[in-house]
Every structure is written in structure tokens, then in C-alpha cells.
Design brief:
Layout (H helix, E strand, L loop, with lengths): L6 H26 L11 H6 L2 H34 L3 H9 L6 H12 L4 H8 L11 H26 L2 H9 L4 H12 L1 H16 L3 H5 L8 H11 L3 H22 L14
Helix pairs in contact: 1-13, 3-4, 3-7, 3-10, 7-10, 8-9, 10-13, 12-13
């Protein structure tokens, strides 16, 4: 039976989803960005975004997103590497991913209890003689909690890239006289770079728009683009400025995706690079 005449029909659900849940929301954000508080058409929102206030806010957002991504990658890559060497690697990977299934708000409140003045962390510090420390509402607590939340999403693509890496390539490197560091630098890391790029995408992009963790963990001492959007929409009710920030956030995300995207460099079953 020939299903070719029906093939265009398969695109309809996908096209409708893209239209109503991707294109339409972005179009509305762009539309509202050209209106002020009084509902008048204006370019003032875009002019305001290029002032020093929003410039510093953008730099701060990129800085914290960079820190979160850097520390996530720093811990995720060796973790993913050692997972591929374990006997029950899929089980260990599942145990790492399971916490990501828990509601983000619940995990955030759990850290408030852990890092609070009367939490178990401060109780341990008091036992060691260091005394209670103000761990919450600091840059450290914000980055630490964000890394904990995002690190499973960094581990997963890196693990998949490492798991698909042919052992024959590594053996060939050792046979040619390369040491462990050279093998990692010249063979393992380049061939798993696509996994690293995917991990950077799924961590850096959401980290740019964090707002709930900044409020609950950092106590609004850390302001990101996501926090600014929330304040514009819910506090000042300036939908135009909030939409303008969202437009630039979408633009930044698109640029990051372009920068971190690359051609697929995989391995075949016989150990050849394709």
C-alpha cells in the first residue's frame, strides 16, 4: 500500500504545534515590546535596554550563566567518563538523573532548609568549631544550587558521547605511543565535543533566564534577565519592557545555539571516524 499521498497530512500536527506554541508566543512577545505602559506604540523600550542599567544586568546574567555552565562541565565530564567505566553504568546514570524528576520548587526549598542558619550544614559547622555561617543569600549558594540542578543535564549528553566512543580509537592512540593525557586531549575530548556542546546548550541557555532560584536562594542579591522579566511583568506591570528583555533573551539564546552547534562527528561500529 502506497502511503505517499498521506505523508503531507503527517506534518499538520507538527506544523500546528510549531505555529501555536512557538511562533505565536514569540510573535506576541515581539508585538508587546513596541508598547509602553499607556499602550502607545514606541521604540523607547529598545532604547532603554541599551542603557547602562540593562547592560550591567546582561553582563551579570552571562557571568552567572558562565559560572554555572563551567562548574557543571567541570564536574560532569569526569563523572560521565567514570560512569562509562562502571559495570552497571545505566543504573548509575539513572540514579543521577532521578533527582531531576523532582519538582524544582521542592528542591529549592530543600536547599533553603539545608543551608539555613538552623539547617544541618550549619549544625555541622558549629560542631567543628567554625560557628554558624550565612550560607543562604550569597553568590556561592546561588551557583552551588544551580549547578546541582543542572548537572544531570550536562552529564547525560556527555555520557552518551563517551559511551559511543569506539575503544579501538583509544587503543590505537596508546599503540602509537600517546600517554593518557595526550589520548584524552587529542582523541577522547575532540570526539566527544558534540556532547559537550549539547550539555552547554541545555545548561547555559536556561541559566540565563533563572528567576526562582535567584529569589529564594540568592535573596534577590543576584539579578538575571529572567528576574528582570518577572519583575517587569508581575511587579511594575510593564509588559512592554518585559517583552523587550524577553526578545533579547531569545536572541541571545539563538546566538548561543548557533555558536555551540556543529556537525556530527560520530564513530562507526568498526572504529572508523565518520
Amino acid at each position: 500500500m502506497n502511503n505517499k499521498p498521506l505523508r503531507p497530512l503527517y506534518i499538520i500536527p507538527y506544523g500546528a504545534w510549531i505555529l501555536f506554541f512557538v511562533i505565536a508566543p514569540i510573535a506576541l512577545i515581539v508585538y508587546y515590546s513596541f508598547f509602553d505602559l499607556s499602550g502607545n506604540f514606541t521604540f523607547e523600550n529598545y532604547q532603554n535596554f541599551f542603557t547602562s542599567v540593562y547592560f550591567k544586568l546582561t553582563i551579570s546574567s552571562f557571568w552567572y550563566a558562565f559560572l554555572i555552565t563551567f562548574f557543571s562541565l567541570l564536574f560532569a565530564y569526569p563523572t560521565a567518563y567514570f560512569l562509562t567505566k562502571t559495570t552497571h553504568k545505566q543504573l548509575w546514570l539513572l540514579l543521577i538523573i532521578i533527582p531531576s524528576w523532582i519538582n524544582l520548587l521542592l528542591k529549592t526549598y530543600a536547599f533553603i532548609g539545608l543551608l539555613g542558619l538552623y539547617g544541618p550544614v550549619n549544625a555541622f559547622l558549629e560542631m567543628t568549631g567554625l560557628g554558624k555561617q550565612q550560607l543562604l543569600f550569597t553568590d556561592f549558594s546561588f551557583v552551588f544550587v544551580a549547578v546541582y540542578i543542572f548537572i544531570p543535564f550536562m552529564i547525560l549528553p556527555i555520557f552518551n558521547s563517551l559511551d559511543k566512543l569506539s575503544p579501538a580509537l583509544i587503543d590505537a592512540s596508546y599503540d602509537l605511543g600517546a600517554n593518557t593525557w595526550t589520548t584524552f586531549r587529542r582523541v577522547i575530548f575532540p570526539l566527544t565535543l558534540n556532547g559537550v556542546k549539547s550539555g552547554i546548550q541545555v545548561v547555559f541557555i536556561p541559566a540565563l533566564s533563572l528567576f526562582m532560584i535567584t529569589r529564594l536562594i540568592a535573596g534577590n542579591k543576584v539579578i538575571t534577565l529572567g528576574t528582570a522579566i518577572e519583575q517587569q511583568f508581575l511587579v511594575t506591570q510593564n509588559w512592554g519592557m518585559g517583552s523587550t528583555i524577553a526578545v533579547f533573551l531569545i536572541l541571545f539564546m539563538f546566538i548561543i545555539m548557533l555558536v555551540t552547534s556543529g556537525s556530527e562527528r560520530g564513530k562507526t561500529g568498526n572504529g572508523k571516524v565518520k
